[in-house]
Amino acid sequence: MEEEDANQLRQRIAELRIEHRDLDEAIHRLAEDPKADQLRLRRLKKRKLLLKDTMARLSSLLIPDLDA
């Protein structure tokens, strides 16, 4: 992987981390509200999980392959 590609991946992971953290805060606020829309809360949680999976997948691309 070229250094430019790796830098772009790192930048994208950083952006996803920010979005993940923002979603976490929004979920926390919504969960505290007894009148909160449960469907919206579930959708936010699914989106947060998708972001986490995407960050893990992109991070694994940054790990160099080792010759056995």
Structure description:
- With 68 residues, the protein is mainly α.
- The chain has one domain.
- The chain has 2 helices and no strands.
- α1 runs antiparallel to α2.
Give the mean pLDDT: 93
Element string (H = helix, E = strand): HH
What would you call the structural class? mainly alpha
β content, as a range? under 5%
Features:
68 residues; mainly alpha; 79% helix
How do the strands and helices of this protein lay out in sequence?
Blueprint: H1 3-32, H2 38-61
Summary, kept brief:
By secondary structure, the chain is an all-alpha fold. Helices cover 79% and strands 0% of the residues. The chain contains two helices and no strands.
